[in-house]
Amino acid sequence: MDKRLIWTVKVSGITPTEKKLRELSEREDLFDISSVDIKSKQYKDAVRNFETAEKMGCSIVTYIDDLYPDCLRSISSPPPVLYVLGNAHILSEVVFAGVVGARDSDDYGNRTAQNVAMEIGETGAGIVSGGAKGIDAAAHSGALRANAPTVAVLGCGLDVVYPKSNKRLFDKIVKSGGAIISEFPFGEPPLKTNFPRRNRIIAALSSAVLVVRAGKRSGALITATQAIGMNKTVFAVPGNIDNRLSQGTNELIRDGALVFLSSVDIIDELIAKNPDFFVRERSAQKSEVVTPHNSTEKTGEEKLPAELSEYEREIVNIINDGFNTQYMIEEKASFDASRLVALLGMMEIKGIIKKGTDKKYKVIN
Question: 0.70 cut: is pTM over it?
Answer without folding.
Answer: yes
